[in-house]
Amino acid sequence: MRIRGVKPFASAVGLLLGLLCAVEAAKVNKHKPWIETTYHGIVTENDDKVLLDPPLIALDKDAPLRYAGEICGFRIHGQNVPFEAVVLDKSTGEGVIRAKAKLDCELQKEHTFTIQAYDCGEGPDGSNMKKSHKATVHIQVNDVNEYSPVFQEKSYKATVIEGKKYDSILKVEAVDADCSFQFSQICSYEIVTPDVPFTIDKDGNIKNTEKLNYSKERMYKLTVTAYDCGKNRASEDVLVKINIKPTCKPSWQGFNKRIEYEPGTGSLALFPSMHLETCEEPITSIQASIMLETNHIGKGCDRDTYSEKSLHKLCGASAGTVELLPAPSNSANWTVGLPTDNGHDSDQVFEFNGTQAIKVPEGLVSTTLKEPFTISVWMRHGPGGREKETILCNSDKTEMNRHHYSLYVHNCRIVLLLRQEPTESENYKPAEFHWKLDQVCDKEWHHYVLNIEFPAVTLFVDGATFEPFLVTEDYPLHASKIETQLTIGACWQGGSARMTQYFRGNLAGLMIRSGKLENKKVIDCLYTCKEGLDVQLPEEVASAVKVEFNPNQSSLSLEGDDIESFEKVMQHISYLNSRQFPTPGIRHLRVSTTVKCFNEETCISVPDSEGYVMVLQPEEPKISLSGIDHFARGAAEFESTEGVTLFPELRIVSTITREVEVEAETEAEGEDDPTVQETVVSEEIMHNLDTCEVTVVGDELNGDHESLEVDLAQIQQRALEMSSSNVGMVITGVNTMANYEQVLHLIRYRNWHTEALFDRKFKLVCSELNGRYISNEFKVEVNVIHTANPMDHVNDAMVQPQFINQVQHASVDLSGHNLANTHQASVVPSAATIVIVVCVSFLVFMIILGVFRIRAAHQSTMRDQENGKENEMDWDDSALTITVNPMETYEDQHSSEEEGDEEEEESEDGEEEDDITSAESDSSEDEGGEQEDQQGSSRQQQLEWDDSTY
Predict the structure, then answer these.
(1) CA atoms within 13 A on the CB side of 280
(2) Which of 118, 159, 254, 382 is most buried by a 10 A CB count?
């Protein structure tokens, strides 16, 4: 049933409801949110949550209406505010403020900004939302103890005077970077070093707890730390140095005890900052002596550089000096068995303890009183007994006990005995000369020289002249035919055949020189050092201070009255060492000072100052010997008067190796920072040699049929000396490497009985500074090629083709890799080179096997020749002939030539052990174009060793 009028009614009701809703909507979101006007907050550095007072809550009177009564957000106003506000509950309006990033109290302790609250508007789209008023927010950032104390200085220094207690020696101070008062405050300091007489208070003041003593400790090193009020310890402890200054005592100040000297740097100032502390005493005059001790070498200076005999030559002494105490060697063996100083000196020091003595070989010294002569010796001797102590004695060899001449020590006197020879007239003449000297018994090394021109005798001690205080006269000796015996360290009693009057002390460099007296210039040179003290006086003080040196410049004395000028002179005193290779080690220094004041009773006393010069190790040279070390010669050459030269191509080279810093070139590689690298650099240097010794390896030389010879005139011309024995030859003398090379080139080996000799081996060693620097051992082996009369092998020669060109006078050199043709009669083609290498190699191999194998090889070769082999090799135990088949094809020879060239290149690379090498070194670079034109024909040439050559 349909009711009329219902639809219009419904429409009317809907319209009415719409009007009511519109009216109600007009009443929604009428109010603004409300918040407090001021907030205070706290946040910690390592946290992002802010604690607010009061809490952040926004209220809206439109609540509980949805949207209009809800809070949708907070907005913060301000520049670079590191905070954000977040709504926790829209309906209650509760929110929080939190940090957007980590806060730093040290950068900013407080933050202030404004904040507003916003409601959600009238609907989901947030339309018509309202905001509250702006509230002020103050937030304080709480500190965290993240920083440790840091000291203001890297280290602290202070100086105190001994024997005094201080309230405060110095103050250390640390700071803390934390922002809060608690954590930035330094609450305490602490001395970490245990058991020191110091304490520190909370403010950092350090003081001593007891009186300090300079002799006990000159400087204290303390480690100090600090703590902040948060108990954080300092990040790094600080070092505190407290120097103890002695109470004023007169002394030299600024004196370095250790002074390093690098060889080759010239002079070195010893006291560059030295000054005299006088404690304000008035000074009228001052004297000082500076002593440089050279005990590092036992006796005198330069004795560690050259032997006494070499020094005589270097100082210009004439020829004729005989060394009576040489270092033991094969050629000078009479000092073997004497105690030495274990090699501390290059010039050997010998010890005599009262039981040792030696006999000098007969004929070594031929000194007579008819001509002037000189005796020189280095001696160290202490207070002796009542007995005579003989240094050198010439006495009867048998039957009688007469002393012809002697040098001895007796009760701190040195005595020279000179007896007239029987042939002289029966006159009463001086026989004993006595010198009473402190030097004889002071246990120090001294240099003694006796110039004897009978009846006058002069003694030089350390370069100074002394006249005898007593001369005893006597008659000549009675005539007799008894031979004499020269001894050292005691005197030979021929009647009882024993030694007597033994010496107790040290001797070195005992020399006798016949025929001429030593002049003063040479004596001073022998005693003067190449190292010593030097001073270059400034002009302004040259006249204010008197300076005197001793003869060997090991000490000097100063005298003046002005302290300032005196100190300037002291500052210019230097150490100088002009030797190329000085001995490294310590040279002690002592400065002794005497001061005079106005009031002599209260004059100050200046103690001695002692130190040392440390001479560093010099760059040591490496002496290298090189040359031909293996060759063969015919027996005839060994038997000739000239013999065979042992070292024809010897080369002596000396090099030093040093490390240098080189800046690497890295710019080309694109690197920005260049690096510094250490590079080893070797360079050749020139210096002297003093010994070269040739030694026979194996059996000793048989004097009946073999010898080593050299031109003595050439040796003497170069101021060298030679001694030889059945074990070798020794050449001595300080001279250049070039002169030694020239002399060694002249050494020849002869053997006039070579039938049973196949080889001989020799060894050469050279040295400098008495063996301080020694070369390598250069060994040479020479082989004997035995030959026979070539007429014994006529058949061998007859089978050779007529067009073979013979190479006459070929000198076979099997040294290294060269088969040398001394006359270079022809050019050996490459094809023949291969034949030579094979044949000669086979020859040496067969010689080693022996004579019987050589015969077998000869027979085998003959059979091969009869069978028509292309290459033939004839061997005989007495003759050597090599032939080459000339009918080889060009292709075979060309192939052989290429192979020969390869073998020759390998030979030139240095297989020094091989006995046989190619002769291509004789093939001519000088004949280059001509050889190419004749290449085809030269391949047909052959090399033959003619028996007549040997």
Answers:
(1) 1
(2) 118
**Sheet containing strand 609-615, strands side by side:** 258-261, 609-615, 585-597, 283-292, 555-560, 545-549
Name the DSSP class of 20: H
- CA–CA separation, 70 vs 48, rounded Å? 26
One-letter amino acid of 411: N
Give the H/E segment covering residue 721: strand 721-725
Q: Closest by alpha carbon to 282, among 4, 729, 600?
A: 600
* Residue at 818: amino acid letter: N
Residue 443, classed as helix, strand or coil, is coil
Confidence band, pLDDT 50/70/90 cuts, at residue 679: low
For residue 420, the one-letter residue type is Q
Q: Would the CA dihedral through 855, 858, 864, 865 be positive or negative?
A: negative
Peptide bond into 246 cis (omega under 30): no
* Longest Cα–Cα distance in the chain: 199
Q: Let me know if 433 is exposed, middle or buried by CB neighbors in 10 A (0-12, 13-18, 19+).
A: buried
Task: Select from 703, 710, 759 the least CA-distant residue to 730.
Answer: 710
Lowest mean pLDDT among 124-128, 218-222, 660-664: 660-664
Whole-number Å distance between alpha carbons of 187 and 241: 23
How many angstroms separate the Cα of 936 from the Cα of each of 523, 528, 833, 886, 888? 74, 73, 15, 12, 12
Predicted confidence (pLDDT) at residue 186 exceeds the cutoff of 70 = yes
Q: State yes or no: pLDDT of 654 exceeds 50.
A: yes
Stretch among 339-353, 708-722, 885-899 having the lowest mean pLDDT: 885-899
Cis peptide before 829 (omega within 30 of 0): no
Q: Where are the alpha helices (DSSP H) in 663-808?
A: 712-717, 737-744, 794-798
Average pLDDT score, the chain: 76
Q: Taking the mean position of all CA atoms in its chain, how far away is CA 101?
A: 63
First-to-last CA distance in the chain? Answer: 165
Q: What gap in Å lies between CA 621 and CA 632, rounded to an integer?
A: 33
* Cα torsion angle, 263, 268, 273, 274, sign: positive
The dihedral built from the CA positions of residue 17, 18, 22 and 27, taken in this order, carries a sign that is positive
Residue 272 has pLDDT above 80, yes or no: yes
CA distance linking residue 57 with residue 492, whole number of Å: 129
Q: Whats the size of the chain, residue-wise?
A: 950
Is the pTM for the entire model greater than 0.70?
no
Where does residue 521 fall: left (phi above 0), alpha (psi -120 to 50 degrees), or beta otherwise?
alpha
Q: Which of 885, 890, 862 is nearest to 800 (CA)?
A: 885
Cα(759)–Cα(762) distance, integer angstroms = 10
* Strand 110-119 to 413-418 pairing: unpaired
Q: For 829-881, how does the pLDDT look when each residue is reduced to its tens digit (9 = 90+)?
A: 444 556 576 677 767 666 776 655 555 444 544 444 444 433 333 344 433 43
- The pLDDT, as a whole number, for residue 617 is 84
Give residue-wise pLDDT tens across range 519-572: 777 777 776 667 888 888 877 777 888 888 876 678 889 998 888 888 899 999
Read off the DSSP letter of residue 701: P
Measure the CA–CA gap between 451 and 458, rounded to whole angstroms: 5
Q: How many CB atoms lie within 10 A of CB 604?
A: 19
At residue 303 the predicted structure's pLDDT band, cuts being 50, 70 and 90, is: low
DSSP 134-191: -EEEEEEEEP------EESSSEEEEEEETT---S-SEE--EE---SSHHHHSEEEEEE
